[in-house]
Amino acid sequence: MELTDEEFEAANRRAAQKKAAFPPAVSVRYDRRVSRVVIGLASGLELSFSPKQAQGLEHARPDDLLDAEITPSGLGVHFPRIDADLYIPALLEGFFGSKRWIAAEMGKAGGKASSDAKSAAARQNGKLGGRPKKIAA
To answer: Is 5-124 a domain of CATH 3.60.70.12?
Structure first.
């Protein structure tokens, strides 16, 4: 796919708008003491979150997070040991991964939820012999 001059200029305008709308990252570190990634922004704001909350970092070991780098635009953070990237504007908007990944994480949390009704249904199902066996197709 060939990129035209107009498309290139349009992409540069969009990038300039993003840079104007969001403060760039000026520092990034992994704080082992509290097990959190800490990103410092030019505005003075610090973002701090558990790596388990971010797509690409959820299975990272602490050593994998030590050499994080700020991208040249200042709008991203790269973790070279695990080849993972985070986009600062998305983090500021509360998105720690793709829509599909976030939906899967929410589904996991929902499956772990327990309620009186869920417990009662499980007990009732157990009295009937539990889940039916899967029939091989």
So the answer is: no
